[in-house]
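pls ignore typos typing on phone
aspartic acid + seq
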Amino acid sequence: MEKLKHVISSRQFKDPGFLLSLFESAHQMERDDVFHALTDPLRGRILATLFFEPSTRTRFSFEAAMQKLGGGVLTSENAKANSSATKGETISDTVRIVSGYADAIAIRHYEQGAAEAAARISPVPIINAGDGVGEHPTQALADIYTIKKELGRLSGLRVALVGDLLNGRTIHSLLPLLCLYPGVTIDLLSPAQLRLPPLYREFLAERGVAFHEGERLEGVIEQADVAYITRVQSERFVSRQEYDAVKDVYIIDAETANRLKPEAIIMHPLPRVNEISPEVDANTRAAYFKQAKNSLYIRMALLKHLLA
Ligand code: ASP
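k done
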């Protein structure tokens, strides 16, 4: 696969060979980090993190990734209030200006399509770090890397995606990556009001991927190799009552976790609210903290690909 310019949607990743090389690079980064042997291929380069919505993992891991590779960071953690957006500057103008100071921009925005719009006018790479209910492609790269690391394979898996499939952008980005591997079966588990949007169901159908929709965990998670749990996205609801009606619909407690196959893994892009009880953290199936750590190395590999 040729060098990427921007990273806007996980649909850009069409070649499992490219993903494999990214995984190998991420793995090398991890080894070098552990042995304090990292070099600084991005010395003199700058990443701007322009975040119009809250974040812990994504922004910190991008910034840590850049700094571990010898680069520098310009950061706006609350760009909605602390950048000229509050004076009425458009996202296009902000990007035009920031691209004069930075060699790449990781942007998180509350509007779907914002990163794509930024990419249209930016001379430097734009990385979509989450655009409203749209996508979060670098989270999906970390997710798929975690599955490969934990289970040793990506084909022939049964993956249960659980929770807010309507608004969960990590789900929207993970699906196209799962579709790259043969024999994957997907179980979509959500309350009726939080069903996966038709666009993504059509995508699965077009790719000929086997998928089933349902509401109940019972009878499904027992079969799963991966149970990927998501938070009900409170910030996307128009009323508190609507959110309250569904917020605790799935809770993975110790008993539920133990119903999974012993070798299965439980994932979550985090932050969690009540979906996974803390008692599950000690379960050998819990992979969500490793998933968060892996995002650092996959982002290092990606930044090196884009900028070195
Ligand atoms: N951190 C992820 C995201 O920004 C998942 C979540 O917020 O629920 O999409």
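The chain has a mean pLDDT of 96. The chain has eleven helices and nine strands. more later
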